[in-house]
Structures are given as C-alpha cells and as structure tokens.
Amino acid sequence: MDDVLLKALADGRFHSGEELGAALGLSRAAIWKRLQALEALGLDVQSVRGKGYRVAGGLEFLDETTLREGMGEARALPLVLAMTTGSTNEDALARVRGGDRGPFAVLAEHQQGGRGRRGRSWVSPLGRNIYLSLAWPFDTGASGLEGLSLATGIAVAETLSEFGLDGRVQLKWPNDIWVSGRKVGGILTELAGDMDSACVAIIGVGINGSLPDRLGEDIDQPWTDLARETGQAVPRNALTASLLARLAATCETFAEQGFSAFHSCWATYDALAGQAVTLSSGASTCRGTCEGVSDRGALLLATEDGVRAFHGGEASLRPDGERD
Q1: Domain-located, residue 261
Q2: For a designed S-S bond to 171, which of 51, 76, 153, 324 qualifies (C-beta 3.0 to 4.6 A apart)?
Q3: Judgement on whether residues 193 and 307 belong to the same structural domain of the protein
Q4: Are residues 30 and 131 in the same domain?
C-alpha cells in the first residue's frame, strides 16, 4: 500500500496529478492507477477536472503516540498498528500461538479478510472504521469466560455514549452493537490456549465509522455508522484510545468477578428485553419473550415450557428467525 500517497490525501484538499506524481516520482498515469487501487480498498477518491484529486473530509490515521496519550492507566498496553492486514483477530491469534500471551492490542486501518460471527465477512474500508483485537490472558478456562462478549459490549456502548450517542446505543445479545435499531458494530471473541485452564481471549471489535454507501450495499441487514448518527467526522484516535482503556479495565474486572459485575449494566442497553425473540441454533429454533440475561450471560426466554436459558445461538426479532 502506498503510504506516501495516502499521507498526501489525508489532508482532504485537492492535489493535482502532477503534484502527486512529483511527490512519488511517478507519471500521472501511474498515479491514476494507484488511486484506483485505493478505491478498491473502500476509499472514496474524488476527481475534479482542473483541481485534481482528494478524499473528502480527509483521513485521520491511527497514531500510537496520540493513542497512548488518551489511554489513561492503560497507556502501557503494547500496541501493534498495521496499515492493512487480513484480520486483526487472526494476527492476534498468531502472536499468541507464537508465545505472546498478552495483554496486547492489534489495530489496522484496513482488513482484507475481516470476519464477523459464523464466518461472515466484515466490510472493512481503509481508514474509515475501527478494527481492533485485544488479547488478554485469563487464569480460568472457557467456562469461566461466559459473558465476556456481553461485558465487552457494555464497554463499547459506554464508549460510544461518550462520543455523541448517549441514550441511543443498544446491545443485541450476544455481540451486536446497535444505534437507532441498526447495526453499527460487532464483537468476535475467540479463545487460544488451554480451554480448561489458563487461556487467552482474543476480543475483536469492529465499529462502522464512516461507511461509503456503495460498500453498504453488500451488507445483508440494516446498518449505520457513527458519522451518520452524530453528523460529524469520527475522531478515530480519541475514540479508539477511550475504547482500549475501557476494554482493558473491563478485562481486569472480569478476571476478578466474572460477568456478575456487569449483569445489572446489561439491562441499560438490552435491545431484546421484553421483545418476542426467535433463537436459532443449528437446525433448531425456539421462540419466546426475552427476560434479559442470567448472571452468567445466558439469554433468558419465557417460553411455553417456562423460562429457559440459552448460552449460544442467534437471536432475531423477526418471527421467521431471519437475521436482524
């Protein structure tokens, strides 16, 4: 990826092909090809005859120094910043398998193979959204980490509430972040190490900052982004720093108290509470009314057979069980 070209376009002003060519030592034709390559990564490059090229609104790339200044007590957390990668979760898993048990965070400006739950692709335009994975060691095995995704969701919701979305953020069990009934982000938690004792949780968080309409056409559910909801540019460094600090604090508290420390907070953001829900798990489905979650993070459904607790599956507000 052409870092020099990206830095030139980051200011949001017009730059002629001749100017860009001089900066990179390339012909105008070569510059045009590189700009097309950037568009393929999800960047909207405007071209105006007589003015040149620009990225409207500019780009705010993540900066390690700026991030640390905003991370408070978590400023010593090791950070791995990449311009582009396959998946921050995959990068974090590879580091853990290589012997680094964390804690550390991996962040990227662009993902080539971002993933959501159940292997779904995550639309990942360059320099517009937030893609990060936090690796955190826990002494307990997988069973002791029930509810970790929900606690992570609370950390994300609290962060977004501080950045112009107070009272509008909801969490859809187990790991979707909603604003105004549309998905703005998601969480993907994976485990590495011994599933019965000490292990490392890889907590992946993706948040739509400013998603071009043309890329949103590939998303099969209602979606939104922070720019649309707040009406202003996303302060990516400030938001990411605050999120990292909250996630680190959440992991520290979870290690000591588990999900019980976050149980009461979930109700503040619960998008499914009191709603008729269809829960799908494999080929089976269950319908009921959501009564919140248990102190271990299980979804509670009031069904014809009484209140049942579910630790996995996909919940939908649609009666046919299709994804929300």
Answers
A1: yes
A2: 153
A3: no
A4: no
Count of structural domains within the chain: 3
Residues 135 and 281 in one domain: no
Q: 88 and 30 in one domain?
A: no
pTM value? 0.87
| DSSP reduced 3-state for 275 | coil
* Active-site residue identified among 68, 75, 101, 117: 117
33 is a catalytic site residue: no
- Do 138 and 255 contact (CB within 8 A), yes or no? yes
| Same domain membership, residue 258 and residue 109 | yes
120 is catalytic: no
Per-residue pLDDT of the chain (324 residues; tens, 9 = 90+): 567 788 888 888 888 888 888 878 888 888 888 888 877 777 778 788 888 888 877 888 999 999 999 999 999 999 999 988 999 999 999 999 999 988 999 999 988 865 544 445 556 778 889 999 999 999 988 888 999 999 999 999 999 999 989 889 999 999 999 998 899 999 999 998 877 788 999 999 999 998 776 656 567 678 899 999 999 888 999 999 999 999 999 999 999 999 999 999 999 999 999 999 999 887 788 999 999 999 999 999 999 889 999 988 888 876 554 555
183 is catalytic: yes
Catalytic pick from 34, 183, 236, 246? Answer: 183
Strand spans (E) along the chain: 46-48, 52-54, 79-85, 104-111, 130-138, 169-172, 176-179, 182-193, 199-207, 276-281, 284-293, 299-303, 306-310, 314-316
